[in-house]
Amino acid sequence: MHQQKIEAIKSAIEAANAASQDELEAYRIKFISKKSVVGELFAQMKDIPNEQKREYGQLVNEVKQLAEQKFQELIEKVNSSSKKSKSTDMDLTLPPTGIAAGGIHPLTATRQRIIEIFERIGFNLSEGPEIEDDWHNFTALNFPENHPAREMQDTFFIEKNPDIALRTHTSSVQVRVMENQKPPIRTLSPGRVYRNEAISARAHCIFHQVEGLYVDENVGFADLKNTLYHFAKEMFGKETKVRFRPSFFPFTEPSAEIDISCLLCGGKGCNVCKGAGWVEIGGSGMVDPNVLENCGIDSGKYTGFAFGMGIERIAMLKYQIKDLRLFTENDIRFLKQFRPML
Ligand code: PHE
Question: Which residues are CB-contacts of 144 (< 8 A; sequence separation ≥ 6)?
Answer without folding.
Answer: 250
